[in-house]
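Thought: the user wants the 3D structure for the chain below. I'll pass the sequence to the structure tool as-is, report back what it returns, then summarize two notable features.
Action: structure_tool
Action Input:
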Amino acid sequence: MRGAACVAGLLALALPVALAAAEARAADPYPTRPIRLVVPFPAGGPADFFGRSLANTLHQQLGQPIVIDNRSGGGGIVGTDNVAKSAPDGYSLLLASPGSIVIEPAITNQMPYDTFRDLAPITLVVSVPEAVVVIPRLGVRTLAAFVAYAKAHPAQTNMASTGSGSMPHLAGELLKHEAGIEALHVPYRGAAPAVNDLLAGQVDWMFADLPILIPHIRSGALIALALGSAERAASLPDLPTTAEAGYPKVLADNWYGLFAPAATPPEIRHKLNAATNAALQDPELRATLAKQGAVAAKGMTEDAFTAFVKAEGVKWGGLAVAVGAKIE
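Observation:
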């Protein structure tokens, strides 16, 4: 009996200690382990560049590594769906662009997720203009000359995109609509493979995020015709805008934002918002993005970013329907 009483006494003493340890573990501030950042496009493209650039600075704010997970497919749908169905614990995040967030949901009834039911918008990360480029073999150096070429060769040019329903795809469809030209759409699983085939002459032209195009434009491997933005880019000051080239309605600034699974606790979402906005003010990160023709966001609250995403849905989703964009 004395032994049993001794054991019981030890257990009585150990129980509060164990409970206190469990409470301490539960109270450990987020994050306590590496965070997975899903980039829903292949490595080597602009989305991958933005994700890795952000990760290199964000980990300093959060005190944990940010591990990039490239999950391409479906114009961003595969990776977006992966995060939408991940545990809402703050350890699976998404860097997404308008395609899988607001454009593709507007033009298909078979989406595997609902953006505003299954995802929580955290903050805007970066905006970037789209440039339209052609291969040198076409022999054109201006947008007007390209439109004339396309009209003289109806449906004989191939337009690459980063995926059906993506911003580059929609920008190309908008140019086709405004210029009255025809072209065969060739969707890829991201910018990197699309640009690789463009450089190889397998396709003829495309819109794409400026960062991935700049080195090829400067080398002469690709001919830049216009920038689909309201203003010229500091990185390519001689490149006219689409408005200057005669097509003021062809405006297509892309953007990338941070999202989490919808049920992520508010305190974790708030911390991610604050940490990301702080990271985006880092001078080195802003300079890195600027050199590539991209603009780091100035910082948004979760509510402001949610409103922004919804407004983009009205703008681009409606436009996608109007120009007949389709998931292929």
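Final Answer: Structure generated. The longest strand covers residues 119-134. The chain has two domains: 35-127+254-322, 129-227.
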